[in-house]
C-alpha cells in the first residue's frame, strides 16, 4: 500500500503543496488531476525524493518510499527528456535493468529477453535499433512505457503520459495500465486530459496545492469540485451521472 500523510512541499521558496493525505491499494489505477501549477509533478517528484518535503510522510509497504525506490518505475513528462541524446530505443529500455545488473556488467540473455519482451508488448520491437530522437512522440512514449515494464516494479508513477501522443499509443497505454492493475500493481497517473482515459480510472485525486477531492471519476469530476480546482464555472447538460459529460 502507498500512503501519504500530512504532506507539505516547498518549491523555490513557495509552498507548492499543503496537507496532502491519501492512500492507494494494490490493484488501483488512480488519476492525479488539476490545472497547470497545481503541484501534480511536484507531488510525484517529492514522492521520489527529487524534491525535499517540508512536512509529512510518504510510505510504501509501511516503510519510507525512499527506501523502496527499486520497486518504483517513473515515467517523466516528455518535456523533461533530452530526445537528442544518441541512444537507441533498446538501450533506453535496457537502462531499467541497470540496478539489477550493476553499471559494469554487460546484459545477458535474461535481461535482453525482458527488454525485448517489453518492447514487443508496446509494439516497438521492430524499432529497437532506432535512435530515440528519430521516433514520433507516441513511439517515444511507448519506449518509455516499455522501460517501466522492464523494470518489473510494483509502483508506477506516470507524469502526463497522454500529452502529445496518437490514438494508437493511447490505446496501448490504457491496455497496459489495465494489465498492471490486474496484476496487483499500484498506478498513479498525472494527467490534464479529460477524454477516454478518465473513464478507465478507479479513482481520481483532484489537486490544486491541496487535495480538493478523492473518489471515483463520477464523484470527483463535479461542477463544484472543478470550479474549486480551476477557478471557473463548469456546467453539465442534464447528465444522469455526475461527471458523465466530461468523458465524451
How would you describe this structure to a colleague?
The chain has 248 residues and is α/β, with parallel strands linked by helices. It has one domain (2-247): P-loop containing nucleotide triphosphate hydrolases (Rossmann fold, 3-Layer(aba) Sandwich), CATH 3.40.50. 29% of the residues lie in helices and 24% in strands. A hairpin with a 1-residue loop joins strand 9 and strand 10 (210-215). Helix 4 crosses helix 5 (137-150) and helix 5 (137-150) runs parallel beside helix 6. The protein is globular. The chain starts with a strand and ends in an 18-residue tail after the last helix. Residues 236-248 have low confidence and may be disordered.
- Classified by CATH, the class is Alpha Beta
Number of helices: 8
Would you count the extended β strands for me? 10
Mean pLDDT: 89
Low-confidence stretches: 236-248
In CATH, the topology is named Rossmann fold
Strand order, sheet with most strands: 6-7-8-3-9-10
Rg calculated over all Cα atoms: 18 Å
Q: In angstroms, what separates the terminal alpha carbons? A: 32 Å
Protein name: ATPase component of Mn/Zn ABC-type transporter
Domain ABC transporter: 2-234
InterPro entries: AAA+_ATPase, ABC_transporter-like_ATP-bd, ABC_transporter-like_CS, Metal_Ion_Import_ABC, P-loop_NTPase
Keywords: ATP-binding, Nucleotide-binding, Transport
Please sum up the structure shown:
The chain has 248 residues and is α/β, with parallel strands linked by helices.
Amino acid at each position: 500500500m502507498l500512503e501519504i500523510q500530512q504532506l507539505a512541499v516547498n518549491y523555490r521558496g513557495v509552498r507548492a503543496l499543503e496537507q496532502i493525505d491519501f492512500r492507494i491499494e494494490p490493484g488501483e489505477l488512480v488519476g492525479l488531476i488539476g490545472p497547470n501549477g497545481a503541484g501534480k509533478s511536484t507531488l510525484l517528484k517529492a514522492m521520489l525524493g527529487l524534491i525535499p518535503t517540508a512536512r509529512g510522510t510518504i510510505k510504501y509497504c509501511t516503510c519510507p518510499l525512499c527506501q523502496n525506490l527499486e520497486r518504483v518505475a517513473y515515467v517523466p513528462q516528455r518535456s523533461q527528456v533530452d530526445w537528442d541524446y544518441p541512444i537507441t530505443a533498446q538501450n533506453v529500455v535496457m537502462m531499467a535493468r541497470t540496478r539489477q545488473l550493476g553499471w559494469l556488467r554487460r546484459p545477458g540473455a535474461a535481461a535482453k529477453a525482458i527488454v525485448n519482451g517489453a518492447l514487443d508488448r508496446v509494439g516497438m520491437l521492430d524499432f529497437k535499433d532506432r535512435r530515440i530522437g528519430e521516433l514520433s512522440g507516441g513511439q517515444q512514449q511507448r519506449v518509455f512505457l516499455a522501460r517501466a515494464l522492464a523494470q518489473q516494479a510494483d509502483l508506477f508513477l506516470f507524469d502526463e503520459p497522454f500529452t502529445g501522443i496518437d490514438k494508437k499509443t493511447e490505446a496501448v497505454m490504457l491496455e497496459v495500465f489495465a494489465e498492471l492493475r490486474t496484476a496487483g500493481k499500484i498506478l498513479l497517473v498525472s494527467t490534464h486530459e479529460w477524454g477516454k482515459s478518465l473513464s478507465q480510472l478507479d479513482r481520481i485525486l483532484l489537486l490544486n496545492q491541496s487535495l480538493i477531492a478523492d473518489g471515483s471519476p463520477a464523484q470527483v469530476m463535479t461542477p463544484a469540485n472543478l470550479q474549486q480546482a480551476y477557478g471557473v464555472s463548469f456546467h453539465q447538460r442534464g447528465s444522469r451521472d455526475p461527471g458523465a459529460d466530461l468523458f465524451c
